[in-house]
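Appendix C reproduces, verbatim, an entry submitted by the partner laboratory led by Prof. M.T., so that reviewers can inspect both the input and the predicted structure.
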Amino acid sequence: MARRASSKIRPLWLAVVAGALVLAVAGGVWLQGRGGDPYRTVAELDLKDYLENANSLRGNTYKIKGTVARSLGYSRAKGRLFSIEVAPTAGNGGSGYNNNGSGNGNADVLPILVPPELSYVNLQKGQRFTFRLEVGDGGVLKVLELRKG
Protein backbone atom coordinates (compact mmCIF):
# COMPACT_ATOMS: atom_id res chain seq x y z
CA MET A 1 0.00 0.00 0.00
CA ALA A 2 1.28 3.45 -0.90
CA ARG A 3 1.77 5.95 1.85
CA ARG A 4 0.47 9.48 1.59
CA ALA A 5 2.87 12.33 1.83
CA SER A 6 2.58 14.24 5.06
CA SER A 7 1.39 17.81 4.48
CA LYS A 8 2.69 20.13 7.16
CA ILE A 9 2.47 23.87 7.27
CA ARG A 10 5.97 25.05 6.62
CA PRO A 11 7.32 27.90 8.75
CA LEU A 12 8.73 29.63 5.68
CA TRP A 13 5.26 29.90 4.09
CA LEU A 14 3.82 31.17 7.36
CA ALA A 15 6.48 33.90 7.52
CA VAL A 16 5.84 34.90 3.88
CA VAL A 17 2.07 35.19 4.41
CA ALA A 18 2.52 37.14 7.67
CA GLY A 19 4.99 39.51 5.98
CA ALA A 20 2.62 40.12 3.06
CA LEU A 21 -0.22 40.84 5.49
CA VAL A 22 1.89 43.36 7.42
CA LEU A 23 2.90 45.10 4.18
CA ALA A 24 -0.72 45.27 2.99
CA VAL A 25 -1.91 46.83 6.26
CA ALA A 26 0.99 49.32 6.34
CA GLY A 27 0.32 50.29 2.71
CA GLY A 28 -3.38 50.82 3.43
CA VAL A 29 -2.63 53.07 6.40
CA TRP A 30 -0.14 55.07 4.34
CA LEU A 31 -2.56 55.51 1.42
CA GLN A 32 -5.43 56.52 3.68
CA GLY A 33 -3.28 59.17 5.34
CA ARG A 34 -2.36 60.68 1.97
CA GLY A 35 -5.90 60.81 0.64
CA GLY A 36 -7.61 62.25 3.72
CA ASP A 37 -7.65 65.91 2.67
CA PRO A 38 -8.95 66.51 -0.85
CA TYR A 39 -7.73 70.13 -0.75
CA ARG A 40 -4.29 69.54 0.76
CA THR A 41 -2.62 71.84 -1.79
CA VAL A 42 -4.94 74.78 -1.01
CA ALA A 43 -3.92 77.22 1.73
CA GLU A 44 -6.11 77.38 4.82
CA LEU A 45 -8.01 80.63 5.37
CA ASP A 46 -6.39 82.70 8.13
CA LEU A 47 -9.43 83.74 10.14
CA LYS A 48 -7.68 86.61 11.90
CA ASP A 49 -6.62 88.20 8.59
CA TYR A 50 -10.06 87.62 7.09
CA LEU A 51 -11.92 89.17 10.01
CA GLU A 52 -9.57 92.17 10.16
CA ASN A 53 -9.59 92.99 6.43
CA ALA A 54 -11.41 90.62 4.09
CA ASN A 55 -10.89 92.85 1.04
CA SER A 56 -7.14 92.31 1.22
CA LEU A 57 -7.75 88.60 0.48
CA ARG A 58 -10.10 89.26 -2.46
CA GLY A 59 -9.60 86.95 -5.45
CA ASN A 60 -7.66 84.30 -3.52
CA THR A 61 -8.72 80.69 -3.01
CA TYR A 62 -8.64 79.04 0.43
CA LYS A 63 -10.03 76.07 2.31
CA ILE A 64 -11.85 75.90 5.62
CA LYS A 65 -13.34 73.09 7.67
CA GLY A 66 -16.49 73.90 9.53
CA THR A 67 -19.91 72.95 10.78
CA VAL A 68 -23.09 74.35 9.30
CA ALA A 69 -24.64 76.56 11.99
CA ARG A 70 -27.74 77.72 10.13
CA SER A 71 -29.20 78.90 6.85
CA LEU A 72 -29.22 82.69 6.52
CA GLY A 73 -30.96 83.22 3.20
CA TYR A 74 -31.73 82.10 -0.31
CA SER A 75 -31.75 83.76 -3.70
CA ARG A 76 -32.53 81.81 -6.85
CA ALA A 77 -29.99 83.89 -8.81
CA LYS A 78 -27.16 84.08 -6.27
CA GLY A 79 -27.53 80.90 -4.19
CA ARG A 80 -27.81 80.03 -0.51
CA LEU A 81 -26.14 81.85 2.38
CA PHE A 82 -25.08 79.82 5.41
CA SER A 83 -23.27 80.55 8.65
CA ILE A 84 -20.39 78.17 9.32
CA GLU A 85 -18.73 77.59 12.69
CA VAL A 86 -14.97 77.28 12.22
CA ALA A 87 -12.93 76.19 15.23
CA PRO A 88 -9.63 78.08 15.47
CA THR A 89 -6.61 75.90 14.79
CA ALA A 90 -2.89 76.57 14.68
CA GLY A 91 -3.11 76.95 10.92
CA ASN A 92 -6.01 79.36 10.57
CA GLY A 93 -5.22 81.86 13.33
CA GLY A 94 -8.64 82.16 14.93
CA SER A 95 -9.69 85.55 16.21
CA GLY A 96 -10.23 84.38 19.79
CA TYR A 97 -13.81 85.61 19.86
CA ASN A 98 -17.00 84.48 18.30
CA ASN A 99 -20.19 86.08 17.20
CA ASN A 100 -22.60 83.22 17.73
CA GLY A 101 -23.73 84.36 21.16
CA SER A 102 -22.27 81.47 23.13
CA GLY A 103 -19.44 83.57 24.50
CA ASN A 104 -17.04 80.64 24.85
CA GLY A 105 -14.53 81.84 22.24
CA ASN A 106 -14.10 78.35 20.78
CA ALA A 107 -15.43 78.99 17.29
CA ASP A 108 -15.67 81.81 14.78
CA VAL A 109 -18.81 82.07 12.69
CA LEU A 110 -18.36 82.95 9.03
CA PRO A 111 -20.96 83.53 6.31
CA ILE A 112 -20.46 81.53 3.12
CA LEU A 113 -22.34 81.71 -0.16
CA VAL A 114 -23.16 78.44 -1.91
CA PRO A 115 -23.84 79.30 -5.58
CA PRO A 116 -26.74 77.81 -7.56
CA GLU A 117 -24.33 75.43 -9.36
CA LEU A 118 -23.92 73.56 -6.04
CA SER A 119 -27.63 73.48 -5.20
CA TYR A 120 -27.63 69.69 -5.51
CA VAL A 121 -25.72 69.46 -2.20
CA ASN A 122 -27.99 69.26 0.84
CA LEU A 123 -26.41 71.29 3.64
CA GLN A 124 -28.08 70.85 7.03
CA LYS A 125 -27.42 72.24 10.48
CA GLY A 126 -24.72 70.31 12.33
CA GLN A 127 -23.08 68.75 9.25
CA ARG A 128 -19.30 69.10 8.89
CA PHE A 129 -17.83 70.08 5.52
CA THR A 130 -14.50 71.01 4.00
CA PHE A 131 -14.96 73.98 1.70
CA ARG A 132 -12.75 75.29 -1.09
CA LEU A 133 -13.79 78.89 -1.49
CA GLU A 134 -12.86 82.19 -3.04
CA VAL A 135 -12.90 85.56 -1.32
CA GLY A 136 -15.05 87.75 -3.54
CA ASP A 137 -15.97 91.43 -3.64
CA GLY A 138 -16.78 92.82 -0.22
CA GLY A 139 -15.17 89.80 1.44
CA VAL A 140 -17.95 87.39 0.47
CA LEU A 141 -16.79 83.78 0.81
CA LYS A 142 -18.08 82.00 -2.31
CA VAL A 143 -17.89 78.20 -2.24
CA LEU A 144 -16.18 76.62 -5.27
CA GLU A 145 -16.23 73.01 -4.04
CA LEU A 146 -17.25 71.19 -0.88
CA ARG A 147 -16.83 67.76 0.61
CA LYS A 148 -18.71 66.28 3.52
CA GLY A 149 -16.73 65.21 6.53
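The chain has two domains: 8-37, 47-148. Additional entries are available on request from the coordinating office.
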